[in-house]
Amino acid sequence: MDTVVSGIRSTGNLHLGNYFGAVKNFLKMQDKNNCYFFIADYHSLTTYPTPEDLHNNVKTVLAEYLATGLDPEKSTIFVQSDVREITELYLLLNMNAYLGELERTTSFKDKVRTQPKNVNAGLLTYPVLMAADILIHKAHKVPVGKDQEQNLEMARKFARRFNQMYKVDYFPEPKPYNFGAELVKVPGLDGAGKMGKTAGNGIYLTDDAKTIRKKVMKAVTDSGPTEMNSPLTEPVQNLLSLMKLVSEKETIDFFTEKYKSCEIRYGDMKKQLADDIIKFNAPIREKIIEISSDTDYLRKVAKFGAEKAKESASKTLKEVRGIIGFKQF
Ligand code: TYM
User: Fold this and answer.
1) Are residues 148 and 240 in the same domain?
2) Whole-structure pTM over 0.90, yes or no?
3) CATH, residue 154
4) pLDDT digits (tens, 9 = 90+) for 96-148
5) Based on the domain organization, do 65 and 153 belong to the same domain?
6) Contacts of 277 (CB under 8 A, 6+ apart)
7) For the CA atoms of the chain, what is the radius of gyration?
8) Ligand 1 cavity residues, CB under 6 Å
């Protein structure tokens, strides 16, 4: 049986990118694998949440995990900071992670550009903490979206390096879910790039019908095709990509044809897309509201998950310490 590990940073509500890039694949995996799904609250510290926000965001993501169908009886659902063994493995892996390779990661370079006043060491070693999350359970598979591809490559590299350094075959090399296939990239509504939390271009699972309509109707398009069969521009391709996630095939075919024949009306297309997202979101949103208010249940799930995750993590850490050469007198 494969071990699967994945997590989401607790920096706010989950959006459709998180759902279709990661959660949907978690759901497919939890029946047949040994799954660990966690809330990455240590990772969220790179953006300095207030103490209240730190806890509330963890609570939000936990409720959203459960509302989408993650099952605490089938999977180990836990909060990263409840499993301190992860931080020790992070320290140990940091000894074999080099400045050059960390500085070269795309996400780090992006942060240096976008937040030059806060280039903290946590950002630099972000992929090492992520590798620790994955390796602490000796994961074989990691369901993530396209944006995490490079971080996952780093985790494989650190696993390989550890095995070579100590001449052991200890850590499996963690592969993305659906290894070999293209990873999912959910586009945002602003015409370019991926859907994200910071970009403010996303639709959240908690968005109500009115909010979804407003966001989708404002989505960037182009001035319309002027020649038959012209290639799709990026903003229109993005709307179609979103449709592919939530709409019927006939709907997608219909608007693709209309574009080709230069008869497309973006207003109609957006209205349809908004309706389909609303239909998709509604039952999840209702569940989120219901579960969020049940603090006792959330506490029980987190406690149960932490116990299971700690069991696996402490076993790995004990073995890793032994391999490295830590011994008791
Ligand atoms: P985060 O919190 O940015 O995103 C969580 C998950 O959602 C996916 N995702 C997307 N997928 C497709 N299209 C999008 N527009 C999109 N936006 C987000 C991400 O690929 C991710 O799977 N470093 C991670 C959290 C993490 C982690 C881990 C993941 C920490 N430790 C260990 C896996 C294993 C992150 O910041 O994801």
Assistant:
1) no
2) yes
3) 3.40.50.620
4) 999 999 999 999 999 999 889 999 999 999 999 999 999 999 999 999 999 99
5) yes
6) 16, 203, 212, 216, 242, 246
7) 21
8) 5-9, 17-18, 21-22, 40, 43, 130, 133-134, 142, 144-148, 151, 184-186, 194-196
